[in-house]
Amino acid sequence: QELRDLEVSAPSPAGLAEVEVCKPELTAALREIRTQYESIAVKNLQEAEEWYKSKVPGAGRGFGEAEPSPSPDSRGPRRIRPHPGPTQPLLPLQNEALQRQMREMEDEFGEEIGNYQDVVGRLEQEIQQMKEEMARHLREYQDLLNVKMALDIEIATYRKLLEGEESR
């Protein structure tokens, strides 16, 4: 469920790429936690059954055997409460371990983000320098084109003068 929530809350395709990078680690961690909780649940269920069998007379007998009816004063608990066993102290430790792992991953990805931002900054700087260089080359080209046109006009003028001299 948490994995689906992470996938749904991903803000952008770039964010998806970051989530996909840590997905195998997160999936493995979630799988491990799930198996731990399942084993704890099975253990608690067994403890509850043992407790119930010890508190309720005849719980271990089959259907064909007669059971004494409980008196109104000796009613057992109506609801089985979970036994506060060794699972209670483990939850804060697991939570702390997961938070520590999350902080480590945030630090690691924070460093990677910083590195990528540095690369992006350098590339943007290079793009700006190339744009400035292109603008300079364009101005030089325009200046050369203007000089060429002026020289073409001057050549045409001299050609007319020479043709005028020859025709005299």
From TrEMBL:
BP term (GO), one: intermediate filament organization
Domain IF rod: 1-168
PROSITE patterns: IF_ROD_1, IF_ROD_2
Ranges where the record places region Disordered: 56-93
Family matches, as InterPro entries: IF_conserved, IF_rod_dom, Intermediate_filament
Domain of life: Eukaryota
Alphabetized SUPFAM superfamilies for the sequence: Intermediate filament protein, coiled coil region
One Gene Ontology term, aspect cellular component: axon
Coiled-coil stretches: 95-147
Entries under Gene3D superfamilies matching the protein: 1.20.5.170, Single helix bin
Alphabetically ordered keywords of this record: Coiled coil, Intermediate filament
Pfam families noted in UniProt: Filament
UniProt-recorded Gene Ontology molecular function terms: structural constituent of cytoskeleton
Annotated family: Belongs to the intermediate filament family.
PANTHER family cross-referenced by the UniProt entry: GLIAL FIBRILLARY ACIDIC PROTEIN, PERIPHERIN
Stated name of the protein: VIME protein
Origin species: Pachycephala philippinensis (yellow-belllied whistler)
